[in-house]
Amino acid sequence: MTTQRTAEATAVQAPTIELQSVGKRYGGISVLRDVSLTIRPGEIHGLLGENGAGKSTLLKILGGVIAADDGTVLLDDKPVRLGSPRDAIETGISLIAQELALVPDRSVLENIFLGQWANVAGLTNERADREHAERLLEETGFELDLNAPVSSLSLGQGQQVEILKALARGSRVLCLDEPTAALGETDTENLIRVIRQLAAKGTTIIIVSHFLDEILAIADRITVLRDGNQIITDEASGYDAQKLVSLMVGREVEALSRSPEPVAADAEVVLRVKGLSNHRISDVSFEVRRGEILGLAGLMGSGRSETLNSIFGGDRATSGEVWIRDRRVKRNSVRASIRNRLALVPESRKDQGLVLGRAASDNIALPSLGERQIFSFIRTKLERAAVAHVIQLVDIRGRVQHVNVGELSGGNQQKVLFAKWLVDPPEVLLIDEPTRGVDVAAKANIHNLILELAAAGTAVVVASSELEEVLSISHRLAVMKQGRIVAELDRTATPDEVMTAAFL
Amino acid sequence: MKTETLAVDATTTSKRRSRVNLTDFGVLGGLLIIIIYLSLATNTFLTQPNLVNLLDQAVVIGLIAVGATICIISGVFDLSASANLAISAIAGVYFTQMFGVTLGFLLAILTGAVLGAITGLLISLTRVHSFIGSLAMSIIYRGLAVVLTGGAIVAPLADQLEGFRVWTRPVLGGVTAGTLLFIVALVIFGIVLWKTTYGRRVYAVGGNMEAARLSGVRTNLVHISAFAISGLCSAAAGMVLASRAGSAQPAMATGLELMAIAAVVIGGTSIMGGSGAIWRTAVGVLVLTVIANGFNLLGWDTTYQQVVTGLLILLAVAADSLLVRRLKRT
Asked: Which one-letter DSSP state was computed for residue A25?
């Protein structure tokens, strides 16, 4: 029965979506105002804007996750109520969020039809599902093992399962929220190919992304939002990245960051990594001088994060040495690293960096708690002064000390991560993804902070998936591939050279 | 533009904070309402003997709950608390026979702390979930308690009995020494959580273990010490119980840690770890005790008391999970 229903749905054309002055408020604060646009069947529509511009809000309204406060949504000229994700799916709209909604321990097949398995009186009919899934695989060109558990898939493949899930439910409109943010190059290219293919067959795609070039490459039309206002909706062909950025930011942007100050040729080597290896990296060796910024580039999964974590002792290294000046740091000990004035700003704020639910000041004070105590009693005045000092240093505005870090913006959370290590300035600062998920202004702020720290004598290692970022702030670049450093380049390297080294 | 976004930030946070504050003191309001109601509905509630009795009733659950609070905030559960209580009380009786009442008591709480630390150590080393790990340890401890006593009831020597009953003695305005012991534990561990670096680390480990580890916190040590504190508090509770009965036995206080965890949760400490406070536990314990007392005074059928207690726990947990969900949404 299920099979039949979806087979019919597959033949159905995507509806024309029309938004009429849609708005959304959260308790008096308007996050989306008067957005009106029409999306044609089979169109790829890009939604652009800085963090907090309202892109995700708009997408969530279409996906039924949140309800609009003003305006109406029309499908094929008929007003629809999108009160829940279920409503949305029934009208043929599926939202694919950044975090995948899959059951990791169950098979791809089960996940594609999650909750809607073909059945006879509650007994599942796996064969019907399998046939249907195979048809979908053929249609999309995905290469997935239907029997594999979802936990064995890469993130990109997981996303493919989400797309299949949407198609299996007969969705002809896919809303994708930052689908490529966490994907490596290959997965990204695959996804883009699939998006094009789906659109060619009449599926409407609405996509939110930070990567302007990507959007420009695939979108038929674009909408730029700024502070909840619709700035433009237009054919994509007339725009380039620079023009889009100025529309998003509302002013012409100057070059994002300054260049790093040159390092004296005789500057002392502060960090020496010799032959560091574990199951993810092999024989990683490099040196960083006082005041120098070394960039770690490479594709997703090339071992950048693992390298930084192993140096810091957060991940186990099975062999290799880490030296700070003439001191050898005990391996696999975070505490020994901290004692030797190493610090790590980890990749994931929420998982590795912040204690959500606690005040910003508690987070900042955590690594250096032992220094402001009498018989383990916290010396509150000293702590307050120390926290205030570093908050100013990293340029967090507003009175945030006692605010729960979970309530701060992404940019300020990232600055808190820097602040907690600056209470006791480190000699070596390891930074994994310095600006993931922060807006343009905070990004420039953080870049400047890194440059200032280096100028003051800190040895810095920065890993980033954004090539432009590492290229612009590093003195030198080490390119990683499959856990090894495959090339060392200086800052005059072009993105092409780096990518060539990363791929070949 | 910059100032505009800042202003928005500020209003949302202050609004959200005030909402949290409301639920923050919800339990306290609830306790006050029950107390006011009982004061008006009965003429026995606000009498000195009843209040003394009420506080004395809170001691055993309360002491276990203090330890449970620290465990839960640090992100672990100690289901071995009541078994630890039994074995420590039995050891306490033996120690009393050998070394007298004072040293007997001190060695009993030391036993509790050591057993707690062993539970914590095993859980940290094997990385099993604390729920299962401490459940297993509780069965072991109950078994050992039977082995130690041969299943019998043990009591101090006859001439020690008077001294052994010290915790039942009225001291300040009729309030028992046991109640004072509970209050001392509340104050000490309240300050530990609130004012010390150790307390901060407990919150950090419970809030985000990985972030704490990467900040140089010895997360295993925090968990082991939380279990040790739980053991110490349970042992103290065990000595109060033994002091009341004049004896100890292997089956004493079975399952009491679940009531203690309930009291912690009713007080508003999050079962997800990372937030909560000792004063909340004091309030939670009082709510449970006052309700029990109220059923007695009003002459209501005490079987319904369990239904009410269960509903309260549900309410508290639901409020907690709603709060967590709201936080996650940002």
From this structure: E
pLDDT beyond 70 at A293: yes
Q: Which residues of chain B have pLDDT under 70?
A: 1-24, 324-330
A1 pLDDT more than 70: no
For the domain bounded by A269-503, which CATH number is listed? Answer: 3.40.50.300
pLDDT band at A143; cut points 50, 70, 90? confident
The per-residue pLDDT for range A151-165, each reduced to its tens digit, is 888 878 888 899 999
Q: Which amino acid is at B112?
A: G
Domain B52-319 belongs in CATH node 1.20.81: no
Instruction: Name A504's Cβ contacts closer than 8 Å, sequence gap at least 6.
Output: none
With CA atoms as reference, report the closest residue to A162 among A126, A198, A127, A186: A198
CATH architecture of A2-249: 3-Layer(aba) Sandwich (3.40)
Please tell me which of the candidates A28, A357, A367 has its beta carbon nearest to residue B216: A367
Q: Please say if the pLDDT value at position A504 is more than 50.
A: yes
* DSSP label at residue B166: G
Q: CA A300, A302, A307, A310 torsion: positive or negative?
A: positive
Average model confidence (pLDDT) across chain A: 87
B-chain CB neighbours of A403 within 8 Å are 13, 17
Q: Residue A458 in 3-state DSSP?
A: coil
Ranges of beta strands (E only) in A136-203 are 173-177
Asked if the domains A2-249 and A269-503 are classified in one and the same CATH topology, the answer is yes
The per-residue pLDDT for range A83-133, each reduced to its tens digit, is: 888 888 888 899 988 777 888 889 999 999 988 888 888 888 888 899 999
Query: Positive or negative, the Cα torsion across B78, B80, B86, B87?
Result: negative
Q: Is the separation of the CB atoms in A293 and A475 below 8 Å?
A: yes
* Nearest residue to A462 (alpha-carbon basis) of A257, A278, A275, A156: A257
pLDDT-derived band at A6 (thresholds 50, 70, 90) equals: very low
Question: For residues B273 and B130, what is the distance between their CA atoms, to the nearest angstrom?
Answer: 13
Angle subtended at Cα A325 by Cα A323 and Cα A326, rounded to the nearest 5 degrees: 80
**Contact residues of A toward B, CB < 8 A:** 26-29, 52, 227, 250, 312, 314, 334-335, 338, 344, 346, 351-358, 362, 365-367, 369-370, 373, 376-378, 397-399, 403-404, 406-409, 420, 441
Q: What pTM was estimated for this model as a whole?
A: 0.77
